[in-house]
Specification:
Order of helices and strands: HHHHHHHHHHHHHHHHH
Helix content: over 70%
Oligomer: single chain
Number of helices: 17
Strand content: under 5%
Largest sheet: none
Length: 403
């Protein structure tokens, strides 16, 4: 039964989060049709992210995923988000109402991603890292899909937005009808807005969140800017059709992370989440520095390095969330996961915005190197967590005095 839930919930999560990914695919078309400025393009992307942060904070504050059944929260959020997103494709002809509707879509998505992780955790215990890894891996492939669409050719943007909404409605129905609560599902929570503060008093949870924040400082900045980085590098290397090759390369670099999530989950369940997250962040942080050194030269070598980067930059993501489900209060797992994603996505807005500033200051040769600060602090946090007795609660942890 749990393997069927694994497949169905991963599909539902991917289809529901299609509302987020659709914006990346339509922005180039809207730039021409709506005469968007660089600021308008940035806000079209950022509005859904801001909405997600607001929605996640309110959901965590009100304990929504713990007071109400997470399946119902997921289904209702995916359905309402589809309405907001579909309205853009049906009625909107300018940037201003689109920003409002994208913001509201983001608020709804806060009721899709974290509750999905809580549902998945209710079905898996010893292999929880693998299960949540599959879930995040599905989202990673979805995040890569707009770059494939761009490489294959332009689509009618209204049809694409409506298609994303239809997929989200299907996700809502899958979760409502076919997904059930698992044997480890807890719903004994009562409303307690102070739990946010209490969860951060838990040293294990606090360190896992710190590791997650270091990871997120790097992740979305890389996902957002790697297509531009590869395009500029390929163009400087004299590669013909640089736009097409950079789009295909970006799809591969981001999409390979889906495999990384699953493999890291399997290894984390066996060797420990702290160990796998530390290894992942050491490799991805090193890539932050090495990638710029290859800018404009050796395109094949650069592509291979970026594949390694894409594999490791997301591979550890699910393990921070899995750790929270094991270290926190079982009655407030949904709140803890939602708070974690809220803080992480809030931080990404800073690092995403800083990359073009770093490019102006340092050029592409060194701009990404400053992202290595995140993995550095993430490694320190997870190493400290590994040394604590409480880490024995985390799946797959094996105490090694010499680590």
């Amino acid at each position: 039964m749990k393997w069927r839930i694994l497949v169905l919930l991963s599909i539902a999560e991917l289809l529901g989060m299609a509302l987020w990914f659709s914006a990346s695919a339509v922005t180039p078309t809207l730039e021409t049709e709506w005469h968007l400025s660089d600021s308008g393009k940035a806000w079209l992307t950022m509005s859904v992210q801001i909405g997600f942060v607001v929605g996640a904070f309110l959901s965590a504050l009100l304990n929504v995923s713990d007071i109400f059944n997470a399946r119902y929260v997921f289904s209702l959020s995916a359905f309402i988000g589809a309405i907001f997103n579909g309205a853009i494709g049906l009625f909107v002809n300018s940037i201003e109402p689109a920003l409002v509707l994208r913001f509201l879509t983001g608020v709804c998505l806060a009721g899709v991603y974290p509750p999905g992780m809580k549902i998945m955790a209710s079905w898996f215990k010893l292999d929880r890292g693998m299960a949540i890894g599959v879930l995040v891996g599905a989202l990673t492939v979805g995040a890569a899909s707009p770059h494939l669409l761009k490489a294959l050719g332009s689509l009618n943007w209204r049809e694409l937005m409506l298609t994303a909404s239809i997929l989200s409605i299907i996700a809502s129905l899958i979760c409502l009808v076919f997904v059930k609560d698992g044997p480890y599902y807890d719903q004994g929570a009562t409303f307690d807005w102070r739990y946010i503060g209490r969860s951060l008093d838990n040293q294990g949870v606090r360190l896992a969140n710190s590791g997650y924040l270091g990871h997120m400082w790097e992740l979305y900045a890389v996902w957002t800017w790697i297509p531009i980085f590869l395009f500029e590098s390929f163009k400087n290397s004299g590669i013909a059709n640089s736009a097409t090759w950079s789009a295909l390369s970006s799809f591969a670099v981001i999409g390979v992370g889906g495999i990384g999530c699953v493999l890291a989950g399997i290894l984390a369940d066996r060797y420990g989440r702290t160990t796998i997250t530390i290894v992942s962040m050491v490799i991805s942080g090193s890539c932050c520095i090495l990638a710029g050194m290859l800018f404009g030269n050796y395109p094949i070598v650069l592509f291979i390095l970026c594949l390694i980067w894409g594999f490791t930059v997301i591979s550890d993501s699910a393990q921070f969330s899995a750790s929270i489900t094991e270290l926190g209060d079982p009655d407030y797992v949904g709140t803890a996961l939602t708070l974690q994603t809220c803080m992480g996505f809030l931080l990404t807005m800073v690092s995403i915005r800083l990359i073009p500033v770093f490019v102006n200051w340092l050029s592409w040769h060194w701009a990404f190197s400053l992202l290595a600060i995140g993995p550095f602090f993430g490694v320190l946090s997870m190493y400290r967590l590994k040394r604590l007795p409480v880490s024995a609660k985390i799946g797959g942890e094996r105490k090694q005095s010499n680590f």
